[in-house]
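Q: How would the structure tokens look for this protein?
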Amino acid sequence: MDLGIKIGVAASTVMIVLGCVTFVAWRTVRREQAELQQKLNLAEQQVRDANARQEIRKTELDKTLAQLEAQKRKVQTPKQVVEALPEVLPLPKTIQLPSVSAATSVEPENTEQPGAAEPAKPDSPQPSVALPIDDLKPLYDFAVGCKACQARLSTVQNDLKDEQVKTAALSRERDSALQAARGGSVMKRIVRAAKWFAIGAAAGAVAVKLAH
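A: Here is the predicted structure in token form.
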């Protein structure tokens, strides 16, 4: 075969191989870019969803705290406190205000004869603690404050979970970007593929030469 024809065939072969290498590298990069974009979109959506949930919780918390503050301003008198206290502080037995008209008790005249048998005493009533009326309002405000603290705690706990979701999503986004960066551009992939192609071609040429 003429030398010119051989050179032409070799050049055509090299161009075809380089074209195939370029196409494969480009297609790989496109596929990886699509996968990366999908991961980025998923991570961004997770962050947006977490932010939206946190914003909703903040709005609900502000509304709850405003309602509790309104309750504290509305409930002022001892009667109002006694009526509203079970809503914020469940007790085994509700607090009752003392009756305004307390009947005066009169000591009965002792008509028992000396030496007579003592009558049976009724069961002793359970001891009770008098609650000053002035303490009712602070007690109610404290109970309302506890409910506000519980609402804040619940919001903070749920916000913490969403912060963990956002951190995990951003970490995956970072890892995907680093992995894509390590892969390199299309040109770098072509150069690497061409290098291995050149090594393979040289090895093939040596094998053919040895065979002859």
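The chain has one domain: 3-90+132-211.

The mean pLDDT is 74.

Upvote if useful.
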